[in-house]
Amino acid sequence: MEKREKQNPWKRLMAIRGMGQVITVAIGLLLLCIVFSMLSSSFYSERNVGNLLRQIAPILIIGIGQAYVLITGNIDLSIGSVVGMSCMISATLMTNGVPTPAALLITLVVCLFVGVLNGVLVAKWKVPPFIATLGTMTVARGVAQIVNNNYNTNAIGDKAQWFRDLFYYGNFLGLYNTIWIALVLFLVFNFLLGKTRTGRHIYAVGSNKEAAKLSGVNTDATTIIVYVVSSLCACVVGLITCAIAGMGTMDSGNMYEMYAVAAAAIGGISTFGGEGLLVGTVVGASIWGVLQNGLQFVGAPVAIRNIVIGIIVIVSVLLDVIIRSNRPRKKLKTESAAVAGDKVH
């Protein structure tokens, strides 16, 4: 028995749900890197690789938040507006004399409130997630506009330079701090999703909400948790955006909800819920970053870049539909039993 297990590491790897999609898109990422390196010798320069990783990091962070929500079978359209709200609130407070730590704490609390509100609207009040988060998206963007009387803020000043270094310009062990922040968040939330009871409940809710509820899962609390995670990630990206610009801009985070869905969907997170690995979001965000960066190197206009990424997102979701339609429907009972067993223990 032991010998047979050692002989099939590939089968054991592929048996992990969602690993096939991750490996497929990882191969696609590798091919993209090869193609762009052939088209431009500057693509693999040390400077460009560093900037590319720093460009990918915020997309990965919001992709993690959106992935959590998508796995439960929901969606969060408010992510981009929460990014803008985070940027504007933090910058406005700092430019009006509020100590930077206090400004960051207030910003975090406001952003987390949006996450709780999203979760309550969807879980408790049964508002469709598309409508609920569309509403909070508009409200959050309005808050971003009103906090500084419908103006972008002034520069946050030299007193907040440590904040800018912490979230963007700082460097540790050869990597920018933005990359370290993304890495830490990925490790924490990947552990939570893959190794804890909460993570199993998130998958169970997305696979079959009613079966999960019958198995003892608090589906309302689980839904609220994923929306709080999404808003936390958006808050962090808003702070990174503020650190980059050195000021608050009202249009910060515009279109980021699309980037978040792209990173998650390209990486194999099912938009129908219940499936996907968070490591796939790393690959999905990397594909987004490489495409943006590589197409820019070859002189493609912004419109072409957006069209290419949009097509890739549609194809990713279409493949998910095809895979699900051809799969035996046995997993729901298995997952419910696993959750029930977890509840007993």
Provide a descriptive summary of the structure in words.
The chain has 16 helices and 2 strands. The chain has a two-stranded antiparallel sheet. It has helices spanning 2-7, 9-14, 19-39, 46-71, 79-95, 100-123, 129-146, 161-169, 177-195, 197-207, 209-214, 219-245, 256-266, 278-297, 302-325, 331-344, and strands at residues 171-172, 175-176. The chain has a domain at 56-253. The protein is mainly alpha-helical. Helix 5 (79-95) crosses helix 12. Strand 1 and strand 2 form a beta hairpin.
Sheet with the most strands, sense and barrel status: 2 strands, antiparallel
Beta-sheet strand percentage? Answer: under 5%
Helices, by number, come to 16
How many β strands by DSSP?
Answer: 2
Mean pLDDT: 87
Strand order of the largest sheet: 1-2
Question: Ends: how far apart?
Answer: 28 Å
Classify the secondary structure makeup into a structural class: mainly alpha
User: Over the alpha carbons, how many angstroms does the gyration radius reach?
Assistant: 21 Å
Query: Based on CA inertia axes, which overall geometry fits?
Result: globular
- As a percent range, the share of helical residues equals over 70%
H-E order: HHHHHHHHEEHHHHHHHH
| Unreliable spans | 330-337
State the main characteristics.
two-stranded antiparallel ribbon, 16 helices, 345 residues
SSE diagram, text form:
Blueprint: H1 2-7, H2 9-14, H3 19-39, H4 46-71, H5 79-95, H6 100-123, H7 129-146, H8 161-169, E1 171-172, E2 175-176, H9 177-195, H10 197-207, H11 209-214, H12 219-245, H13 256-266, H14 278-297, H15 302-325, H16 331-344
Antiparallel strand pairs: 1-2
Helix pairs in contact: 3-14, 4-9, 4-12, 4-13, 4-14, 5-6, 5-7, 5-12, 5-13, 6-7, 6-12, 8-12, 9-10, 10-12, 10-16, 13-14, 13-15, 14-15
